Amino acid sequence: MIQRFDQHKRQKQLKINYSPKTPLRVFSMNPALIIILFMTIILSACGGEKEEERPEKPENVQILPEVIFAVTDDQPLNFVLDTRGIVEPVKELPIIPRVSGFLTNHSISDGKTISRGETLFAFDDAEWRIGLQEAEVNFERARQEYELEYRQRLNSFGKAHNEVDSLDTFDDRLLKNQTGYTQAKTALDRIKMELTYTTMKAPFSGEIFTERVLTNGSYLSAGQELGLLIDYSTIRIRFDVLESEIGHIQKGMEVDVRSSGGYEVKGNVVAISPRVDRARKTGQVIVQSRNSERRLKPGMSVDGRIFIDSSQGKVRAPRAALLHRDNRALVFKLNGTQVEWIYVEPQAITSDWIILNEPNINPGDTLAVDRHFAISHLQEVRPRIR
User: Fold this and answer.
1) What is the pLDDT of residues 342-383, one digit of tens each?
2) What is the spatial distance between Cα 308 and Cα 348, in angstroms, rounded to a whole number?
3) Nearest-CA neighbor of 172 among 193, 192, 199, 154?
4) How many angstroms separate the CA atoms of 302 and 283, rounded?
5) d(C-alpha 208, C-alpha 287), whole Å
6) How many domains does the chain have?
7) How many CB atoms lie within 10 A of CB 376?
């Protein structure tokens, strides 16, 4: 009886230990073991699949290197000097009043086109006209006094007017000063000159540059810069050139001028600065060019290519075709799909071109210019023409 009770008790304990609400001990395993088990199952599944067969590479297929070639010509080789400079107008006039006054009208507006003789600005000239009238009255009074004194002195010498040598008889200049004639004449001339300063006219056609906004009736002081009148239908460009290169440049040399936007014009060297900047080791070359389309604006930076000299030979080829091996220059010439190694002695070399006078190279031949550093003599290649 006691034995049956113990057996019943053990069965009850087993039910309690394996209750669904009680987590099983197997799920408390280390996560690393679970990952290892999972990977083992995957590898076992993959291992059962048959590996896809790949076709073998045919042994008789030849892989040819791709080489870039260019065709030679018989054009001359131009030696050029590349530099950079700033555009300047040939004509530029500061608009500055020489007298102070109140503005009555003007044409000073940024970007406005001005014709020669057109009024740039005008002041109210009433004050100067009154001053002109006063100066004319004073001059007339002084002139009459001078003539009266002059006649009296002639009478004292008892000679006719046309018989008197003023330098021998009396000092005429001193007489003019004593009568006030000279002072009155100077004042009259000055007021006439100042009256012309109240208006400024354009001495040449051009365009206005200004950062000011002017209003009629404004008071402007003498010496104030109101803007610039610019004519840049013809321009000048100051190019900086290294002191080691400036000796190769002469007046009249042709220059290609190119803006950053790609616009191109031709010019000529008109002057070479006599002074070299000691700090920068550069001199300046001044180039003049027509700018009828006005595409190049003053202040713009432009590139210049100055043609210094020219060399003519049998063949002109790209500089990239020239290689050096064993301290000798050579090129690779294309014959069908095969390259020929030819030693050469260039007649002239620039950064872009070479001149060759070799018997085995003629205009129209094709030379390797890229991807040719590792090829050899009589090697088969896959040519590509540039």
Assistant:
1) 999 999 998 889 999 999 999 999 999 999 999 999 999 999
2) 14
3) 154
4) 17
5) 24
6) 4
7) 8
Tell me the average pLDDT across 305-324: 93
The whole domain housing 157 covers 126-197
Q: Can you give the pTM of this predicted structure? A: 0.64
- The alpha helices in the chain, defined as continuous H runs, are 2-17, 31-47, 126-157, 166-169, 172-179, 181-197
Tell me if 325 is assigned to some domain: yes
**Does 60 map to a domain?**
no
Mean pLDDT, residues 158-163: 55
Opening angle at CA 36, ends 30 and 39, nearest 5: 145
- Is residue 205 within 8 A of residue 115, CB to CB? The reply is yes
**Cβ atoms 256, 264 nearer than 8 A:** yes
Q: Are 66 and 382 in contact (CB under 8 A)?
A: yes
Q: Are 210 and 227 in contact (CB under 8 A)?
A: yes
Q: Give the closest residue to 89 by CA, choosing from 221, 235, 187.
A: 235
Amino acid identity of residue 233, one-letter, is S
